[in-house]
Amino acid sequence: MSETAKRPLPLVYAALIAGLQSISLIGMSLEVFFDISEQNVKVSSGVGLMLLILGLGLGAAALGVAKSVHVARGPVFVAQLISLGLSWNLVKNVAGLPGVTAVGILLGIAALSVIAALVSPSAREALADRPVI
What is the tens place of the pLDDT at every residue in 37-85? Predict the structure, then answer.
């Protein structure tokens, strides 16, 4: 049996969505770095660096989930909880910006689906620290 056949489909799905979130965070960090002006050098560089570190960390955790490394589940799960909070704030959209509510709904659906994938029985068994009896 090949190694890819042993990986449950929920883990592959969770790793894929977390990887896409990682790419998005890295893309946002690059956008912040390219949008730095003299007035906001310190804040923008700090935010850009933070987004870059978060994106790289989530990407590493997504790779770990894809390889069924049990310690990778925690960072991906926490990132999804943070995404749920962010999506809630985006859905409220008190500023009335166009498209923000839709992005919030999409982010919330992605976060909930990754959480559901990570807590599925097959994913829990694959990521178990010790064999399930």
Answer: 777 777 778 888 999 999 999 999 999 999 999 899 999 999 999 999 9
Burial of residue 1, with CB atoms counted within 10 A of its CB: 0-12 exposed, 13-18 middle, 19 or more buried? exposed
Q: Which element (helix H / strand E) includes 75?
A: helix 73-92
Query: Are 128 and 39 spatial neighbours (Cβ–Cβ below 8 Å)?
Result: no
| DSSP letter, residue 95 | T
Q: Which residue has the tokens 């390219």?
A: 34
Give how far Cα 40 sits from Cα of 28, 30, 32, Å.
16, 15, 11
Helix (H, G, I), strand (E, B) or coil at 37: coil
Residue 115, judged by CB atoms within 10 A of its CB (0-12, 13-18, 19+), counts as middle
Name which of 82, 69, 128, 71 is nearest 108 in CA terms.
82
User: Residue 129 has what pLDDT?
Assistant: 72
pLDDT band at 7 (very low <50, low <70, confident <90, very high): confident
**12 CB contacts (<8 Å, ≥6 apart)?**
66
